Input
Amino acid sequence: MKAFGEILTLEEALDRYLSVVRPRPRGEEVAPLERALDRVCSADVRAGEDLPPFHRSTVDGYAVRSQDLLHASPRDPVGLQLVGAVRMGERTEVRVEPGQCARVPTGGMVPAGADAVVMQEHTRVDGESVYVLRPVPPGENVLHQGEDARRGEVVIPRGTRLRPQELGLLAGLGVVDVPCYLPPRVAVFSTGDELVPPDHQPRPGQIRDMNAYTLTAQVARLGAVPRFGGILPDQAGAVEAALRDAMRTADVVLASGGSSVGTLDVLGEVVPRLGDPGVVVHGVAIKPGKPTILAFCDGRVVVGLPGHPVSAMVVFDLLVRPVLEAMLGLRPELRGPRTVPANLVAPLVAPQDRDEFVRVRVRWQEDVLAAEPVLGKSGMITTMTRADGYVRVPMGTRVEAGTQVQVRLFD
Amino acid sequence: MKAFGEILTLEEALDRYLSVVRPRPRGEEVAPLERALDRVCSADVRAGEDLPPFHRSTVDGYAVRSQDLLHASPRDPVGLQLVGAVRMGERTEVRVEPGQCARVPTGGMVPAGADAVVMQEHTRVDGESVYVLRPVPPGENVLHQGEDARRGEVVIPRGTRLRPQELGLLAGLGVVDVPCYLPPRVAVFSTGDELVPPDHQPRPGQIRDMNAYTLTAQVARLGAVPRFGGILPDQAGAVEAALRDAMRTADVVLASGGSSVGTLDVLGEVVPRLGDPGVVVHGVAIKPGKPTILAFCDGRVVVGLPGHPVSAMVVFDLLVRPVLEAMLGLRPELRGPRTVPANLVAPLVAPQDRDEFVRVRVRWQEDVLAAEPVLGKSGMITTMTRADGYVRVPMGTRVEAGTQVQVRLFD
Output
């Protein structure tokens, strides 16, 4: 293990930070099904009953006994006696005996005695007789009771983010009160004497704050709850007061600004005072994003992010997102960005001492995805708006054009 | 062109439908930047000024004239006279003449006369002299005025969905009122005598409605505005009254239920009465989802979806989503699901007369993505909850294991 204060790799930094913070959800609540989209469920959801609750036909046709039709063919159809029709939404009293059949609609209950449904396209009807033109295996065109979900079975494991299909399954099982984790509350600050809000006209030397918008949007996209706390001056007293105040109601405090030595000093001076154990990681061997402070102060996650909007976004994705996803309660296999394989179309070189994260545009070229590096200095926010994701280039390595790389896609 | 009433392929159906509907946004509004995440901007956004508005240093170091340092080296450093320090957020009056330099923080204004910044790590300071250990090319460590965005340049084209980075760029340019398309309003109905709401206990033959939840969630995920109109009985009068009422306030009306012949009759009977030109497509050669009605009635998009939750979700994605994305105003290249290349791990066979859409799970195996078909009958909603996306198998073809396929990822 590296000594404290040494520059850590991304994985070392993250491992050390997660082992100190041990992030987990702050609690649970019950969400109504109507508002559960994209929430993370906090308990294994078991089917309280079989789904479907009865044998259902998956086609329009005739419920039959497959044994009757072993030798059916177009040249030698088997005639069955039509003994009734199943009505949608009702229990059927019909019973299919040998040599009989019953009309059944898609979604209708398969009557007792029948073990399969013949599609109507494969029959000819003549009065009370239905001629079947082909054999059917047992179970054909039937969704059996409990085949979709069996009573008692875990159908949605704890830590699942609820997509439209999970909501549908919950509805089908009658789960209208959904146990969900409470999302972490994240306070976001921008620091820097050069910053003005976007609705201000900057004076010479000033610049409009972007991080308030990028970071709160990144937080919101994950499903956590952002609150922008404002722009703070490069002044230890003001920064400390604002961060301490935020720590009273937020689980996570993010303060960007700190690419400059002056600003870094402020966060580097203030953060250790905010509580124990304090600063866990200071500096990570990544480009962009080296001057990052990861701290844990009296139970609050406190992160000092670089001031460059691009660096702040990348550091958020690499180092803050894993913490938030654990606090959101997401299962480990559902964490992190989507990654896809792509062919690099131009060579990339990383510096000797840092892994570089290079923005790329991803496009289909014939049958393969191509990853084209976005040109422009790393401080340019337009390198992010022109990109679909980014590629990691390990420190001191050159990745040749034509190499297959993994692209971390933006959400 | 196929005759009206014939079963169309997916592309034929979609082309025909889009050419009749010609979907486009219903209007525009101005959204405050704070609430513009995931909205679609309705105008080309041009930079009103240069970004950055002045030459900015990207590092902590010394602003220099690169010409002075052509022969600098660790063995033979070039000494420069330190003539001042740039302060963050202020215009600097310092001017760097030949043989001089000025201290500048990351993000600070590069003073007049200087054309590059040397990182402080590459210098040694001795009183008023700064010794530089290496040459720097002109422009090194400087983000030039207008390099990120030049005044007048289109930085965000119309039809862009605003991600965190676009919000940051808008903030940087002072665009706090964002022109956005109004999202389409989508009414969703479930039809079928067998359906009960999820908080009801189904009687024998009944089943809980899932489509209300899956479809409204799919609509919401795209950024359109869903409203669930309720469960309708298989009764033409009731269905017609409800759909007509919804058409007064919705741009799109979706009615699921119609896998059964009885129900299809109701929608097939009602929809043509709702306005002109009426039904455009009835039946599409896809599995699942064949019994689909695409209609355009007095300026309203009206779609009859299959009742099976899985079929309804797939048809929504294949046939309704393209219409909604056009109505949302999304640029064509931003429409549709994310698709990724993956290696199929088991063979798939489609029927002779329909393209089949098979749910798959996607996992990294070594350096490639593997697509594993999800087992289970197509009517099972759990085939959707266990899947990450789906693969298209063209009608009458067999796709062998090991083939590279395109997976349409779920959002």
Notes: Chain A touches chain B through 99 residues (CB under 8 Å). The mean pLDDT of chain A is 94. The domain at 28-48+154-181 of chain A is CATH 3.90.105.10 (Molybdopterin biosynthesis moea protein, domain 2). The longest helix of chain A spans residues 309-328.
